[in-house]
Amino acid sequence: MGRHKEFDQEKAIDQALDLFWEKGYESTSIQDLCDHLGIHRGSLYDTFGDKHELFLACLDRFSARTDENYNYILKEDSDSPKEQLERYFSRVMDVSLSNAARGRGCLMTNTTLGAVAYVPNVASRIDAHYMHTEGLLFSFLMRAQNKGLVRSKQSLRQLARFLNGVKQGVHVMARTTADRGVLEDICAVAVSTVF
């Protein structure tokens, strides 16, 4: 009979995510994780494999959270896609400024800029995360175009990639400015490019 795990695996992933987010992958040791999660090394290895596998689980969890935090807005069917995109960027700004105030930025952006981004299974998750957002933006733009509301002459794929880049830029800019007006200006120009 196997040993019963004395901790909640889902809660442990959330706690590990917070630690990786705060310290970064490279600066988080196995001992840091054990101390933060309140578990023994053996339990961590038995459950998650190793630090890297636990980090991958955290990236997956983070990607799911972005859908819950703001990507869900892109899935709505709205009579005013312009207002919908403004609401989307407003929520992205809220989340970005909140993360910046906690000194941690966006986990996926931080990971993209770190050395671990060159590890193939991390790179594939980063790519999947960005491609997922691009796909949501593309579908959103298709619905807006079908309503005759897209003004831009750029292709919808180009616009989706541009808006995805703006979103990532907001995450980065929020780390260097507490002035929401700066972010609002960036997002307003992005919206005006489309509608």
UniProtKB/TrEMBL annotation:
InterPro entries: Homeodomain-like_sf (IPR009057), HTH_TetR (IPR001647), Tet_transcr_reg_TetR-rel_C_sf (IPR036271), TetR_C (IPR011075). Pfam families: TetR_C_13, TetR_N. The keyword Iron does not apply. GO terms for molecular function: DNA binding. Residues 6-66 form the HTH tetR-type domain. The keyword Transcription applies. Keywords: DNA-binding, Transcription, Transcription regulation. Residues 29-48 bind DNA. PANTHER family: HTH-TYPE TRANSCRIPTIONAL REGULATOR YJDC, TRANSCRIPTIONAL REGULATORY PROTEIN. This is HTH tetR-type domain-containing protein. It comes from Paenibacillus rhizosphaerae.
